[in-house]
Structures are given as C-alpha cells and as structure tokens.
Amino acid sequence: MLELLNYLEQLASHFNLSGFHNYYLYLYFTTMNFKNTNIPKQFYSYLSEKPIEHCIKCEKYLLDDRTIYFIEKAIKNNEVEFEYAICSDCAEKMKGTMSKESVANMENYFKENSNIKGYQEKLLHEEELEIEDFIENCIVTGTSLNDTEEYQLVGVFEGERIYPYAVPFAISMQATEEINEILSKETKDEMNGFIDDFIGIPPEWREIIKTNKPVLI
Predict the structure, then answer these.
(1) Which among 64, 60, 69 has a CA at the least distance from the CA of 1?
(2) pLDDT given for residue 206 in this prediction
(3) How far apart (Å, rounded) are the C-alpha atoms in residues 86 and 89?
(4) How many C-alpha atoms does 10 have within 13 Å on its Cβ side?
(5) Helices marked H in the chain — which ranges?
(6) Helices H / strands E in the chain, number of each
(7) How high is the pLDDT of residue 118?
(8) What is the DSSP string of 66-120?
(9) What is the pLDDT of residues 103-143, one digit of tens each?
(10) 8 bridge partner residues
(11) Reduced to 3 DSSP states, what percent helix, strand and coil does the chain have, rounded to the nearest 5?
C-alpha cells in the first residue's frame, strides 16, 4: 500500500488539502458518484470469481459494511499473476516500516510523474463515473492498458462497495519498475519480510509479489 498512500498524499498536496487521514483521500469537491458502486468484477478474485473476503495478512473478514480495505491485482498477458486484499489496519502497520529515504523518493516520483490533472478533469466534468474511466490507462505514464502486457490494478473498498473517497487506478509495469528502483534496500527488506507472513497464497505468488514489489504494500 505504500505507493498508494504516497500517491494519495500527492493528490492532497496538489489540491492544497489537509485532512489526509488513515489512508483515505477526502476530496474537497464531492464524493465520487459511480454509476455502479458494487465491487467491480475486475476486482473479484479470479480463483473464486467472487469478492475477496479476507485480509491476506490478518485474515480479517472484509465484507462488513464499515471495513475499509485495499485490493491489488497484477495482470500479465490478460492473465492474473497475483491478487490480494489487505485491511487498512495492516496496511497502516506496513507503512510505518518505510524508510525516510523511500518516503522522500516516492513523494518526488509521484509529484513529477503522476497524471493528476487527467484525473481531476474526469472528476470535475463527469456527473456519473464508470470504473473503466479510471483503470483504462496507467496513472503515471498515461499508457493505455491495451498497449501494455503487464499492469496492476488498485482499488479501495468499504465492505461490498467502492469506497467513495478514493480513486481506483491502474499502473503499468514500466512505472512499477521505476518505483522499485527508488525504494531503499531497508524498505525492500521490510517489504519482503511482510510478504513472508502473507496467509494462504501459493508459493509461486509469494515470489512474484516479491519480484514485482506490489503497489499497495
């Protein structure tokens, strides 16, 4: 979740917002009005074809109405490489392990590279939003997902619905690799230890997650 949190903090800074609290961006202009607020099928588990029910770290049940959590999915050649959900409490604990060097590098990276203006245009000019509006291009490079073989999807949810104060997004492998390069060794080691404690995932997923250094954690 580390990159997501820093991205949201950059959004808050861009809009001169205070009040970034517990990983959620409280947008000053409106809550996001999605035509369909249910969890999109793009964020369902490809194994069960249903919403992901438990936190990968603590096994907390996630589909209660007031439980806020994050989902990440990595896609390669239209196949899911890995997927997981993590509750906000576990994500908060992970963020505390990020080195000061990595925090500074992440802040600079998203300040210089994220396509914030494009998101702002969509939010300000669309009365009803479609989830596809936010996950059809990389948030950093602007590249269409149709033109990239690998990418990751990130979403924030509350129970069985989209969390209305946080924007879902996609990020290409190009951007993910650039992010990995600016993380300190200390942060990478902490992330690997955190991933070792993931519950109930296939061993091959664990190694892929470590290699890709997922966006959420």
Answers:
(1) 69
(2) 66
(3) 8
(4) 26
(5) 2-14, 88-95, 100-113, 116-125, 173-182, 185-196, 203-212
(6) 7, 5
(7) 63
(8) T-EEEEEEEEETTEEEEEEEEEHHHHHHHHTT--HHHHHHHHHHHHHH--HHHHH
(9) 788 878 877 877 666 666 666 666 667 888 788 888 888 88
(10) none
(11) 40, 20, 40
